[in-house]
Amino acid sequence: MSSYPGLNHPRQLEEHRCLVYQPTGPSWPFLSRNGAMTVTVHPRISSNDMSVLLEAARTHLGIALLSNYVALPEIRRGSLVVLLPDFPVPDLWIKAMVPIDRLKMPRVNALLHFIRSKGGALIP
Predict the structure, then answer these.
(1) What is the distance between the alpha carbons of residues 24 and 2, in angstroms, rounded to a whole number?
(2) Residue 27: C-alpha distances to residues 11, 30, 76, 91, 119 (Å)
(3) Residue 82 DSSP SS3
(4) Cα–Cα distance between 25 and 23 in angstroms, integer?
(5) Residue 4 CB partners (closer than 8 Å, separation 6+)
(6) pLDDT tens digits for 49-90?
């Protein structure tokens, strides 16, 4: 059961004030027992800075879809709550396109190593 009044299913997000991260847009993905689904929300605020959306969510300006690394500290503090726990958001992926002549650069190798260490699979 959701702790946000009137929100029990992702489709109901269309009726709520939402805070949208511009790079991913207003189409929010969810997983359900019936498979993947997408809901297009109507942004109250749209930003390309997740810290802006985090602060807006903390001050009750709307519902945000935030990355775990941004939201988790606030969830642990109790200043944010996870809505719709029965409808998790699928993991997003990162695509690293590296020119062949830069593959041996230490900083590029360090980045690729970091991605791999966090569970990222790299396709050559």
Answers:
(1) 24
(2) 11, 10, 27, 15, 25
(3) coil
(4) 6
(5) 16, 63, 81, 83
(6) 999 999 999 999 999 999 887 899 999 999 999 999 999 998
